[in-house]
Design brief:
Number of strands: 0
Order of helices and strands: HHHHHHH
Radius of gyration: 13 Å
Largest sheet: none
Helix content: 55-70%
Shape: globular
Length: 134
């Protein structure tokens, strides 16, 4: 994954073999969770959110959600375990400021209400993924 915008990141993930895709998104969420300061210079928030969305899209709870379009479905992480869902959830909490180790980020969005709703839906899907127990 690199510093590109979310659509390009999704296209890049979709081109990877499933095992490499899983490895790429797992590495990003682990780095964000373990070292939140990476969001300030090493891993852009867009990249971290794209990895989190790819993990969430690989969970059964994402089926039928309006934010899972064809591009995200193609980039979805295969074989998401409850451990990976938990790491993605922790990374999401770092990004949105729910974690005590969160870093001060300014995410510029045109529709804050829609963005908040999407982040909450990602959180719900990941929470459901924790309950899978695989």
């Amino acid at each position: 994954m690199n510093n590109a915008s979310a659509p390009y990141l999704l296209d890049g993930l979709a081109e990877l073999p499933p095992a490499r895709r899983r490895q790429a998104v797992a590495m990003v969420v682990l780095r964000v969770w373990e070292t939140p300061a990476v969001l300030l210079n090493e891993i852009p928030p867009t990249q971290a959110l794209t990895a989190i969305a790819a993990i969430a899209a690989g969970l059964p709870g994402a089926a039928g959600r309006p934010w899972v379009d064809d591009r995200l479905r193609a980039a979805a992480c295969p074989n998401v375990t409850s451990e990976l869902a938990g790491r993605a959830l922790c990374a999401l909490d770092v990004i949105v400021g729910r974690d005590s180790a969160s870093v001060p980020l300014e995410l510029h969005v045109t529709d804050g209400e829609a963005a908040g709703a999407l982040l909450n839906e990602l959180r719900d899907v990941l929470m459901d993924g924790l309950r899978l127990g695989r």
